[in-house]
Amino acid sequence: MAVVRTRIRELDVVALRRDIGRWPAGTEGTALIDHGPSKLVEISDDQGQELDLFEVAEEDLELIVHYPS
User: Fold this and answer.
1) Which end of the chain, C or N, has fewer beta carbons within 10 A?
2) For the domain that residue 37 is a member of, what is the CATH number?
3) Entry pTM
């Protein structure tokens, strides 16, 4: 049976698969901009305040919530 992987798109919720900077693997964020093989990810607090913004290779992200377009 083939596994179909949904591509991460803008505004999807993602989790880091590895530590990136001060953020440990498992940290959740939002993919803001889709640059093809990489995504601009925003980490924010529970009130929506931006804490960090950085570029991440798609293979280093796990899709948590996908919002169909």
Assistant:
1) N
2) 2.30.30
3) 0.88
